[in-house]
Amino acid sequence: MTSEVRTHTFPDGSIQRVHTVHLDGWESLRFLRPDPSPAALSSFARIYRKFLVPACPWLFGQMVLFRLPEHIDLPLPMESGRYGTVADRLTAAAALLRRDVTLHRGKPRFRSDLSRRLWQALEVQDCIRIVCGRLPTTAFIPVAEKAGFLTECEPDAAVKVNASFFIMDRFDCATVYDQVGTPFGLCVKDGIAELPPLYGREALLVKRDGSIRITALDPKELTLRIGSHTFRHGENCTVYTRPQRGRTPFGKGLRLVVSGNRIAAVKQGGSVPIPASGFVICPKEACAVQPGDMLRVDGQEDVVFGIQVGNSILRSGIPTDRFLSRFYNIRALQPVPFPPSLYPLDFCHARAARIALGADCDGRPMLLWAEGAAKIGYQKGTDSRGASLSDMTMLCREAGMVNAVNLDGGGSAQLLLRNRRSLQISDRGEDGTETERPVPLALMIR
What we know:
Elements: E1 2-9, E2 15-22, E3 30-32, H1 40-55, E4 62-66, E5 79-80, E6 84-86, H2 89-100, E7 101-104, E8 107-110, H3 113-124, E9 128-132, E10 138-142, E11 159-162, E12 187-189, E13 192-195, E14 202-207, E15 212-216, E16 224-226, E17 229-231, E18 237-240, E19 254-259, E20 262-268, E21 278-283, E22 295-297, E23 303-308, E24 312-315, E25 318-319, E26 354-359, E27 365-370, H4 389-399, E28 403-406, E29 415-417, E30 420-421, E31 442-445
Parallel strand pairs: 4-10
Antiparallel strand pairs: 1-2, 2-27, 3-31, 4-9, 5-6, 6-20, 7-8, 11-29, 11-31, 12-13, 12-23, 14-15, 14-23, 16-17, 16-22, 18-21, 19-20, 19-21, 24-25, 24-28, 26-27, 26-28, 29-30
């Protein structure tokens, strides 16, 4: 493994620092799930207050971010006619709060004694954060115990880098099944898909024969396995996804709600909302699937490593010059939102911290971190300006990449060697103080 930090200077006097790491092989690259941190709730609330809401205050109402403490002795209803039988108590709590609680000038109003007791329990255990925009609406946003801080886990790892998109903002939490901190997008290691593909976005796939390709993948194109049952869209089931639909159509039969890599809920008949973090399988015949069952994806057995995140950057040496993957425009308020809502839609001019994963001409893996501008107090010529997706094509080609895809960037972007950063994360104050953000999924080499 080799590592290099370079500084690019542009004609207007701005600069861009880039950290490039050449890895030894794809076999050593694996997925890392950081240890969940209770501090993630406050961290996500801070991102809402400091960045998301100030950027578009007219798009947000009153938002209640909450998590469930480890011990809460309340009989939360795990089954309802509207959402079916759900897999976990956090989903049940979200359904109860959405149904029975509203906020009036920051004060809760309850329609049931159980919702009042739940609210009080969450307050007592410091598990609620309220953030307010300008709309007269109330939204309850569950925060899963999934996200943690990269610097606090695997401190001796040779390499750690944030990877996949995950559910984070108000529009990403489209249903009660969606939870902040849920990662999504295909993840494959040694032929086993740890997460299914979503939204037909481009994925980087490394085959066992050493070949590398970047291709769009969608759950409707693959065989989905739950226990002993296999499902294939158009053959023995129908798969419903966003943004084509926000809900499944009414009708008889089973609805299997998938969030991430598990069955979040099972409902008999009717219509169910389609999670932003997954999709809904409607089998043509009855099957014994239970909430909480794991989902597997067949057809990736010849893939050593695969990941599906953002747009491609380079494909077989050819720079990508536009969006080939579909993303949601939060300011256009499209009818059916799908994450990540705040992904930049200006390919050439929207600059931020970026992470790219790719391969050189010999097929060896490479990572590239383009440092982002400080959120506050940017100084031209002193601070990195941040890279647009168009800039990344130039930076990756110059570094020697032939194939490359964009990973999750922005304030989450960081690349650590032996738990140390060579550049600064972009979420920092005027005094240079860095604030690390929690993530639920990363890449690692031990």
